[in-house]
# Entry
Amino acid sequence: MLTHLARAMWLMLLTSACTAETFPTQPVRIVAATPPGGAADVNARRLADKLSRMWKQPVVVQNLSGGAGNVAASAVAQATANGYTLLFAAHPVLAVNPLLYQKLPFDPDRDFRPIVLLSKMPHVLLASPALPATTVRELSHSRKRARVASTTVPAVQALRFISLVSCSQILPEWISGMFLTGAVPPP
# Structure
């Protein structure tokens, strides 16, 4: 009896291994939630190139920017759930957008499964070494506010935007944001 069970388990493992080796049997589409040319797009294309070589199957990046990533997420959520359409997006698309938008064309919990964390991007606030401030509070009290600090933000839901808003509450007259092409300025 145990021998039959062991053979059956071995056969199941062999079958699943053979099935896994045959994926993909057609081109794979990676939908990037960013405009072409930025750092995220470059990373998506590098990933596509590596997967294409590994799978010996075309992997194509399609940029669907807009709606703070909701356009891309919606397209992937509506695609056939067979692994041939993947979403390449920063986590705010699925973690922050449900808090910012009352109605989304997708359900982050139902429509998506995480596969891999590809990168981490810390956010830092930097100043000239000549400025005698080592904390945001010291910066806000500093008398050397000759220039306005500026930053670029790719989208309203981006963590950089949320960080900018947090800093602007402490330094309202000191910080201004500049929104990049493909992003929507705040209301």
